[in-house]
Amino acid sequence: MARWPAPGATLTHVPANVPEGFARRRVYLDAGHGAEGNTGNRSVTCEDEEVFTLRVAQDLARRLVATGHFEVRISREPGQRVPYTSRLADAERWGAHVFVSLHSDSRGTSQPWAPAEGHSCNRQDTTPGFSVLWSEDAPAPLQGRRAELARALARNLSRGGFLHYDGVDYVGLYATDTAQPGVFVSREPSHRQIFVLRKPTMPSVIVETHHALDFEEAARWREERTLEVFATAMTQGLVEAFAPPPPPRVSTQQP
After folding, report:
1. Which has the closest alpha carbon to 30: 202, 206, 231?
2. Quick one: DSSP state of residue 192?
3. What's the average model confidence in pLDDT over 233-249?
4. Coil, strand or helix at 135
């Protein structure tokens, strides 16, 4: 069987299981980058990260709202240059329950290549996969909620068939979260810690959707099916973060 992101690898659409009485939640979707002088990475097809994240945020927002269980606000509109401090202030004023920042990753040692005549960008096809980041820099209750959110999202992305990143290039930057593959913990020195992981007073994570320099993976993120399964996985992850499933019942019968 083909493995993500190979062209033949299939993703599994599992409809979200929303428990009865689930309260509508407010999700602040941060389309990563798009601030002044901050366009993010440049993909294997020469797409700026800020363009990719806005496109995916708009699609995910539409699908989350369509469930009837979420209200969504996106951090910026096309053409806007919005500082991260303004995004957080907006999320707090709005009363967001979670802050989810969408990104694509750029890993390893890449090589220049030309996807089309007159274009030059970088390529590196050996480290595909998603990752979800959270920060320990918070009081215990918030720290725990960040961890729950990150693990629930990663768990459901894996269930959908997305490959989790093994973290080989994160050594010295992030610690591996041993509770869930694909989750990493920010323990950087304070001057290098990431604003959207440290500062929000609501649970916050970064979702690195894929490795932008991997040709096959970047191509898969142009597919409607990828966006569909990503949205259902994110939906179920958010539901589980807000309403964790009950522990399995333990039988009291004697053998």
Report:
1. 206
2. G
3. 83
4. strand
**Model pLDDT for residues 13-35, shown as the tens digit of each residue:** 989 999 999 999 999 999 999 99
Alpha-carbon distance of 204 to 69, in angstroms, equals 19
Write out pLDDT tens, residues 124-169. Answer: 999 999 999 999 999 999 999 999 999 999 999 999 999 999 999 9
Q: What would the 3-class secondary structure string for the chain be?
A: CCCCCCCCCCCCCCCCCCCCCCCCEEEEEEECCCECCECCCECCCCCEHHHHHHHHHHHHHHHHHHCCCEEEEECCCCCCCCCHHHHHHHHHHHCCCEEEEEEEECCCCCEEECCCCCCCEEECCCCCCEEEEEECCCCHHHHHHHHHHHHHHHHHHHHCCCCECCCCCCCCCEEECCCCCCEEEECCCHHHCCHHHHCCCCCEEEEEEEECCCHHHHHHCCCHHHHHHHHHHHHHHHHHHHCCCCCCCCCCCCC
Question: pLDDT band at 172, cuts 50/70/90?
Answer: confident
